[in-house]
Amino acid sequence: MTVSEAFLLSLGWSDFFQAGFDDKADFVPGRITGQGRGHYQAQVSSEQTLDATITSKFQDAAKDPASFPAIGDWVALRRGEGNTQATIHRILSRVNTIQRKKSGAQASVQMIAANVDNLFIVSSMNEDFDLPRLGRYIELGREPACQTILLLTKSDLSANPAAYVDRFKASFKGVEALVISREDPDSMAVLQSYFTPGKTSLLLGSSGVGKSTLTNYLLGFDAQKTGAVTSEARGRHTTTARTLRFTRWGGLVIDTPGMQEVSAVASNKDLHNDFSDIKDLELLCKFTNCTHKNEPGCALLAALKNGTLRTERWQQYSGETAQADPRRKKNKYSR
Ligand SMILES: Nc1nc2c(ncn2[C@@H]2O[C@H](COP(=O)(O)OP(=O)(O)OP(=O)(O)O)[C@@H](O)[C@H]2O)c(=O)[nH]1
Ligand SMILES: [Mg+2]
Ligand SMILES: [Zn+2]
User: Does the N terminus or the C terminus of the chain have fewer Cβ atoms within 10 A?
Assistant: First the structure.
């Protein structure tokens, strides 16, 4: 095994991806570790993460959010100039995808991540602990080769963590439940067995439950901003983007912004504040300063056209964000 093969294995590469990878055409495999407007970060070696964009052909063929690269995807890349840039030609077959499916009139799919070994549903032991909602998270994880684990956080603030575990176990037999606190190193150390090299874990849960605090522990340094849960901060998300990184134990972790919408108990205000489906679509627009009016490769216009985004929802969002987005003033396309 070469050094680069060993690295790819530690990044989650496997025979499954190898079988679907065609390296005849100077492609290199890379894993999507981050995403910004119109571009992706794709890690290809221990030293190198390339700034990658999808080809126009790819963009034109992509019909819905699931056909764009997601965090955790393996992609076939071609290196561009300067060796720091690349184009994405193809998504390699996925082992699984974690997607949020919205039902009813809002029927749409939001890609959260791909190729996930462990789905950690993160909840604190307060009003956030809601069995029906936890059940909906568990549904998201019913995917091939994905293990779901409930992580009950901030046990230092709870009088009776065991009671929460019991209530959970009574409803969801066979799903593991762990209790952690950043104040209790032993409780954190138990997580090591999930973060073995090559394994990818995804953290999902409401805003403020401690996903980034846990991520920072797993990384061994404070990469992620964490936020106090105060009444004025409610509904705001400290983490705003998904990132995939190596942990201190070699396995990989994907931190995500909190999700309100999976909740049956979410207030209307929460539902309105969480426009992550639209923000995700904006990431897929071809141009970073897309105004979503008439640009080619606009993912929002495409979603409105094919019905995956409702006009009313879009109007609600654009009404709330119309005020002062400097990007909307420029009219030259840029990437
Ligand atoms: N007492 C206590 N507080 C904790 C613990 N873990 C996290 N917190 C606090 O909870 C607050 C929210 O933590 P974050 O890690 O930012 O929460 P998050 O889930 O990443 O939130 P979003 O990024 O908004 O989705 C912060 O003030 C943390 O310091 C814990 O184990 N015990
Ligand atoms: Mg966070
Ligand atoms: Zn657009």
Answer: N
